[in-house]
Write a structure and sequence with these properties.
With 334 residues, the chain is α/β, with parallel strands linked by helices. The chain contains 14 helices and ten strands. The strands form two sheets. It has an eight-stranded parallel β-sheet with strand order 3-2-1-8-7-6-5-4. A two-stranded antiparallel sheet has the order 9-10. Strand 6, helix 9 (188-195) and strand 7 (201-206) form a beta-alpha-beta unit. Helix 1 (18-31) runs parallel beside helix 5 (78-91), helix 1 (18-31) packs parallel to helix 11 and helix 7 crosses helix 8 (148-161). The longest helix has 18 residues, at 246-263. The relative contact order is 0.12.
Length: 334
């Protein structure tokens, strides 16, 4: 990828409303995101009847419902997916969705998706990984809650199933909502890059508050950035509180675009705009006072001054001790 691939993570912030999902697509497209990502699951295939909710979900949703009840209300129908996919095509933004069960994996493949985003919680789900791997598509693999051995095992499953390592991008992630800044460990982005040679690249799936951490991730080499967003952080639902609002999403994306331009190609050389300043900012050897023909150049009669269109001061030792070939006025270039 020639630029950072920015995923606006709508997730379940549509609250089960198709109309709200359409509004999220429009806002993600206006913000300049490359893709918008939803979640695809069959609630009864995802959690048991007595599965507990996470602590952050207890704070942001009704306390008298279990996880199954919570996510059942957030499930998108298959026909909803088709409608949202068409909307994304019309809005020129890529439609993505994270599947959470094998039937959802199969459905998204039939829908024509050529990128699978694997959430952190599925990285130890062997049959699930094997199914995705069998399609040979591009894969964004989130690595929250992982040690390197977990990631290596998942890569092996995907590769053995038919997806080459060169099609897999690893996303560093801290699975908490919001993620504490002191637990983000952005330097793990570089660890992943060096630990798993041959992968397509490394990115970052962010759950912190604000926009500065994903911008920093871009600066240290993340090639994919994923960030939750919502229309209003005050809405009810599990993920709104840890999400950006549309104006913040746009601000983050604009900053990422600036950073990717600023990173450049890494070759140390004068930039185009710098070249005209070389003669202005650098110095040349000049006469510190009047010098007569035949006089010896010395520290008393030679000094370095701007502009830089004469003899470079780096030749100081070479010039000192020579005889002046003619008369020089003060400040005249040697």
């Amino acid at each position: 990828m020639n630029k950072v691939f920015v995923i606006a993570e709508a997730g379940v912030n549509h609250n089960g409303s198709l109309s709200l999902a359409h509004q999220l697509i429009d806002n993600a497209a206006r913000s300049g995101a490359d893709a918008i990502k939803f979640q695809t699951f069959k609630a009864k295939s995802l959690v048991t009847y007595d599965a507990p909710k996470a602590k952050y979900q207890m704070k942001t949703t009704a306390s008298n419902e279990n996880q199954l009840a919570m996510i059942s209300s957030l499930e998108l129908k298959e026909e909803d997916h088709r409608e949202l996919l068409q909307h994304c095509e019309n809005a020129s933004i890529k439609f993505l969705s994270s599947p959470f069960d094998i039937s959802s994996v199969r459905f998204l493949h039939e829908l024509g998706l050529n990128i699978f985003k694997i959430p952190s919680g599925e990285i130890t789900n062997l049959p699930y990984l094997r199914k995705i791997g069998s399609y040979g598509c591009k894969v964004f693999l989130s690595t929250g809650m992982c040690v390197l051995g977990d990631i290596e095992a998942a890569l092996e499953v995907l590769e053995q199933a038919g997806t080459s390592r060169g099609n897999i991008t690893l996303l560093h992630c801290t699975t908490e909502y919001p993620a504490p800044v002191d637990e983000v460990n952005l330097n793990a982005i570089n660890t992943l890059r060096f630990a798993f040679p041959g992968i397509a690249g490394v990115g970052y799936s962010d759950h912190t508050k604000g926009i500065h951490i994903p911008i920093a991730a871009t600066a240290i080499g993340a090639r994919v950035i994923e960030k939750h967003f919502t229309l209003d952080r005050n809405m009810e639902g599990p993920d709104h509180k840890a999400s950006l609002e549309p104006d913040e999403l746009k601000e983050m994306i604009n900053a990422i675009r600036d950073i990717e331009k600023a990173l450049g190609d890494g070759i140390k050389r004068p930039s185009l705009s710098e070249k005209s300043n070389i003669l202005i900012a650098r110095k040349s050897l000049v006469a510190a006072r009047e010098i007569k023909k035949g006089e010896v150049f010395s520290e008393e009669n030679v000094m370095a001054k701007r502009p830089g269109n004469g003899i470079s001061p780096m030749r100081w030792d070479e010039i000192l001790g020579q005889h002046a070939p003619r008369d020089y006025q003060k400040d005249e270039l040697l």
